[in-house]
Amino acid sequence: MLELVPLAEGVGTEIRGIDVTGDISDREFDRIHQAWMDTAVLLFRDQKMTPEQHIAFTRRFGEVFAYTRSQFNDVEYPEILLLSNLTRDGKPIGSAYSGRVWHTDGHYLTTPPVGSMLYAIEVPPVGGDTWYANMYAAYEALPQRVKDRIENLRVVISRVQSRPYNYPDRPAPTEQERAEWVDVSHPVVRRHDVTGRKTLYVGGNVPWRIEGMSEEESAPLVTFLQEFSVQPQFTYCHKWRPGDIVLWDNRSAMHRATYYDHVAHRRLLHRTTIAAGRPAAA
After folding, report:
1. Which tens digit of pLDDT belongs to each residue from 73-99?
2. Locate the TauD/TfdA-like domain: which residues (predicted)?
3. Does residue 38 belong to any structural domain of this protein?
4. Cβ atoms of residues 64 and 74 within 8 Å
């Protein structure tokens, strides 16, 4: 029997009593989809999916696409991105570590993906957790004077600017990367296209520039919003178990990964990405 259980006070729902590879009725799926819209993150425990089933289940939530790191896409199923420290013929099959700062997937794209689904196959005994933050709740908790100040602002997302913050161990962007990595701007306050609720969209640890503001003015504002939005009352830390599936809404949630010992332990997760979602149930 389908059961919806809150994950934390501020974010997420665990979906119980269902096999995601089985026959999920439209009525049951509407309840699941609405919980995703309402709480930003869904957890399904003790599941087992083939790549085909993973892609098919993702498609119930919207259009599936691959947009990044093609070298780590599954060879037979390019819709699946491999997050792993495993190797094949001496070469890594996936990304061993990434996303260890707060972020929203694809925020450097003009039209970011609406969601991501991560399926755990092998996980380390310690570490490798994922934190999620509810951007609905963060926005709604802001003082009214701050809401008024940021209502019509736009934040500039720059991959060039983010490099030393997100990957300090990597060299500076090349001239080719600088040419290819075009800055994009997004509203600081986004209205969710399905729910109509307002969310914050200033993810990460980078003091992004606000259009029309000097760096001296925009950096403190962006930093305040970023730090405000990841307070404990807005967050949930997921400790992975094999068979877990987590689906998050990139329009209303941020996330970040935590460290694990990639030398001592094995890790393999499959991720799919949703380009455009289905509308909420009527």
Report:
1. 878 898 999 998 887 888 877 777 777
2. 6-273
3. yes
4. no
Tokens 């389908």 belong to: 2
Q: Residue 207's CB: how many other CB atoms inside 10 A?
A: 17
CA geometry: angle 35, 270, 281, nearest 5 deg: 25
Residues 160 and 77 in one domain: no
| pTM, two decimal places | 0.92
What is the number of other CB atoms lying within 10 angstroms of the CB of residue 268?
17
Neighbouring CB atoms inside 10 A of 144's CB total 7
Side chain identity, residue 141: A
Among 273, 270, 241, 264, CA closest to 84: 270
Q: Which whole-number Å values give the CA distances from 87 to 91, 92, 268, in the listed order? A: 5, 4, 11
What letter represents residue 113's amino acid? P
Residue 205, domain extent: 136-229
The number of residues making up the chain comes to: 282
Handedness of CA 278, 132, 7, 261 (dihedral sign): positive
Residue 264's CB: how many other CB atoms inside 10 A? 11
Residue with tokens 């070298």: 71
Q: Which amino acid appears at position 218 of this protein?
A: S
Co-location of 38 and 152 in the same domain: no
Q: Which CATH number does the domain housing residue 8 bear? A: 3.60.130.10
- Total domain count for the chain? 2
Residue 269: pLDDT band by 50, 70, 90 thresholds?
Answer: very high
